[in-house]
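Bump. Still looking for dCTP deaminase, dUMP-forming C-alpha cells.
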Amino acid sequence: MMLSDTDILNELNAGNLEITPFNEKCVGPCSYDVTLGSEFIRYSSPVYDIKEELKPIKFSIDDSIMICPLNYHLDEPTIEYLKEKYNIDKIVSGGLLGTTNEYIKLPNDICAQYQGRSSFGRVFLQSHQTAGWIDTGFHGKITLEIVAYDKPVILYKNQRIGQLIFSKTLTPSKVGYSERECSKYAGQNSVMHSLIKKDFE
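Sorry for the wait, here they are.
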C-alpha cells in the first residue's frame, strides 16, 4: 500500500517514520521531496575494478556545482569564465555521487523508493541509476548517482532534487536492512562510495 500525504504525516507523528530535517512543505500527495546536500564523491580509479577499492575523492560545495556529460570538453579559460559568470563552486564531467540532506529511519513495515524529479528529467539530468529502492528498516541518508546526458546542468545546494515514495508492507520484515550484518550502507550520514568490493571478502 502506497502512503498518501495523510499516511506519511500520521506515520511521522506516531514516530514510526523519521525524516530529519523535516519540512511539511516537502510533503506531496503521495511522496516526500528530498533536497541536495553539499557533499560529493568522484573516483580517481581509471577503471572500475569492483574487486578493488575504488579510491573515492570527497569534496564539498558552498553553493552550486555544474554537472557536465561524460567527455564534455571544457578548457581552463572556459571553466574559469563559467565559474565566474554563474558563481559555480565546482565543475565536473561524468558520473558523480551526491547525497540528500535528509536522514531517514524506516520501520520494518515501511519501504521507500527514490525517484528523481521530472523537472530534471526534462533537462536530461538523472539523479539515480539503479539504486532507487530503499529496504524496510533502512537508516541513513540517500546516496545519489548523478549524470547529465545532454548539456551541463547547474545544481544548487539545498534545492529539491528528488522524492521518496513510501509503501507499507503486509507484514513487517523479520530483519530490517540496518539490522542485517551484511548491509553495507546502514547508518550512512554522508555521501558513500560503492562498497561492492565487500562482496568478494
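The longest helix spans residues 76-86.

Edit: fixed formatting.
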